[in-house]
Structure formats: structure tokens, C-alpha cells
Amino acid sequence: MTEPTDETAEKERGRVALWLDPADLETLSQRCLCNDETPDPEREFCARVRFRARAALHKAGLV
């Protein structure tokens, strides 16, 4: 069973809810356009988005 998201904790982190279709999350979790010349901050951003998309799918029991 999944634990509900703590809305207060997320708001304290400055985060907002974003509802996406599972197919969109799957695409985001696998898509990366970084290459050897991509600056580290952009690589880290890409990695965070992929991780969070995959985590959302996992939490929903879809992977």
C-alpha cells in the first residue's frame, strides 16, 4: 500500500502538484538529451526529473 503524499511537507519545500498520465511519466523517466558537453547543473536537473517521474510510477504501482 502506498503512503499518501504529505501536502504540507511538499508545500514547505516549495513544490506544487503536477498530475500526468502514466505514459507521460514513463516518457519523462526514460528521456535524456544530455551529452558529454551538457553542463553539470543541467545533467543534475535531468536526473532529478527522470528519478521523480519513475518514483511516481513506482509509488502508483505501475512499474
Describe what this molecule looks like in 3D:
This protein is mostly helical. It has helices at residues 7-12, 22-30, 40-59. α2 runs antiparallel to α3. The radius of gyration is 13 Å and the shape is globular. The model has no long low-confidence stretch (mean pLDDT 93).
Structural class: mainly alpha
| Rounded radius of gyration (Å) | 13 Å
- Main sheet characteristics: none
DSSP helical segment count = 3
What number is the mean pLDDT? 93
Hey, roughly how much beta strand do the residues contain? under 5%
Number of distinct beta strands? 0
Rough outline = globular
Q: What helical percentage do the residues reach?
A: 55-70%
The H-and-E topology, N to C, reads as HHH
The separation of the N and C termini measures 14 Å
Given as residue ranges, the uncertain stretches (5+ residues, pLDDT < 50) are none
